[in-house]
Write a structure and sequence with these properties.
about 425 residues
């Protein structure tokens, strides 16, 4: 019975991914795709010297070592190019494996933490940022795929004490790091899960991705005289505005705006929860604050290359308020769990599955959001790493408070997906 249900759900997921990606396989290379293609071309010529060439771009020129990402996915691109030549259609076609892997991993992660895994997976697949990034040759969807594969295999491995699954989870964690250095955020996520399951010894499996990262940095040190990760970190530290209060505030505001406008369709983020009076009051306060922020942005934008229009400011206020409201919902849900724990007066209850799962998902959100605010972020694509735990919380909160009947919820999800 479960197998049949899973098979149907998987077919639905595969259909949606293919429906949203196949029509775009003839898309031209654009934005940062070209930089990753440069590395792929170099790998095809000299696979042991990935960055041994000079590049010229709109924002970068000089040695390719200044490119901020490791080259794992460029090796994949180089393999495709070796077989089919630099054929954009084939590159995009073979990249469909990454949104597929992301979507299927999301389904199984959601199956572990929510009653409606298909709905949560569909919210990821049809989110604005996921759809748009699935059509590119950039590393964000491959990184998300490795991230979710790592979490899925490691979580199921810890729960079942299955060594092979935990090894695969650790290897995919290493692949994520070798795709984007921000993959280090997966380490505390996986370690926390092992701790919350009272199986801290399984953190030793994280020695696998640690070793993969050390070997890569040792290799680049031997070839280029400095480890690539260290070089990028030094560049980040020396960047005059990377850690300024202004830069952090900008990333904080933009990340919140992307969560409200580029993840789950914003009206659908609001509607179910505004039926509850306390949530209506909370949103009114958040909306008032967002309007004040929009007015401030209007005056600040006088120093930009152009001043924001009224329509842009209205959209900013709406998306910004929706993003804050999402954090309010998640925080309220988790503080409710915390209140229950305090009433029980037993710290050991933190390891109860009901509480441990919420702590894990909430920590996932906090870890990624802090990274996006203080180190990375500033682009909508970074919000994709937050969608999985947000989507799971979304449906768990709906189920907890009974905002919809079963049939009405199904209709609501279908409308959200269509929008």
């Amino acid at each position: 019975m479960h197998f049949k249900k899973d098979s149907f759900n998987i077919l639905v997921i595969v259909f949606f991914v293919l429906f949203l990606t196949l029509p775009f396989v003839n898309k031209a290379v654009h934005i940062d795709d070209s930089y990753f293609l440069y590395i792929a071309k170099q790998v095809a010529k000299d696979p042991l010297h990935q960055y041994s060439f000079d590049l010229e771009g709109s924002t970068l020129s000089g040695s390719a070592t200044q490119l901020t990402d490791p080259p794992l996915v460029s090796y994949y691109m180089a393999l495709i190019m070796k077989i089919f030549g630099q054929n954009e259609n084939m590159l995009h076609t073979f990249f469909i494996i990454f949104p597929l892997a992301s979507a299927l991993s999301m389904y199984y992660i959601s199956k572990k933490f929510a009653k409606r895994p298909l709905f949560a997976a569909l919210f990821l697949i049809t989110s604005v940022v996921f759809v748009v990034m699935s059509h590119n040759l950039m590393f964000d969807i491959p990184f998300l795929a490795f991230f979710l594969l790592s979490v899925a295999f490691f979580v199921y491995g810890v729960d079942s004490n299955n060594k092979l699954r935990m090894i695969l989870g650790a290897v995919f964690c290493g692949f994520a790091y070798l795709t984007k250095y921000t993959g280090v955020i997966i380490f505390p996520v996986l370690a926390l899960y092992a701790i919350l399951r009272k199986k801290p010894k399984y953190m030793l499996y994280l020695a696998i991705p640690t070793g993969m990262g050390l070997l890569w940095n040792l290799y680049t040190y031997i070839i280029y005289g400095i480890s690539h990760n260290l070089q990028i970190f030094i560049w980040l530290l020396n960047s005059p505005h990377s850690f300024s209060s202004q830069a952090i505030i900008v990333r904080l505001v933009t990340n919140m705006t992307y969560i409200g406008g580029a993840t789950i369709f914003p009206l659908m983020l609001l509607y179910p929860f505004l039926r509850e009076r306390i949530n209506k009051l909370a949103y009114l306060l958040i909306a008032a604050f967002s309007l004040v922020a929009a007015i401030a942005l209007y005056y600040v934008s006088a120093n930009f290359s152009y001043r924001y229009s009224t329509v842009q400011l209205i959209l900013f206020a709406f998306f910004f308020s929706t993003g804050i409201f999402v954090f309010y919902l998640v925080a309220r849900h988790n503080f409710g769990m915390l209140a229950e724990l305090l009433k029980l007066k037993k710290i050991a209850n933190i390891f109860n599955e009901k509480y441990a799962d919420n702590i894990f998902l909430f920590s996932w959100i906090v870890i990624v959001f802090l990274l996006n605010t203080f180190f990375a972020g500033g682009a909508a694509r970074y919000a994709s790493y937050l969608i999985p735990p947000i989507a799971i919380f979304y449906f768990n909160i709906i189920d907890k408070y009974g905002f919809f009947s079963k049939n009405n919820l199904k209709n609501f999800v279908m409308l959200s997906v269509a929008l």
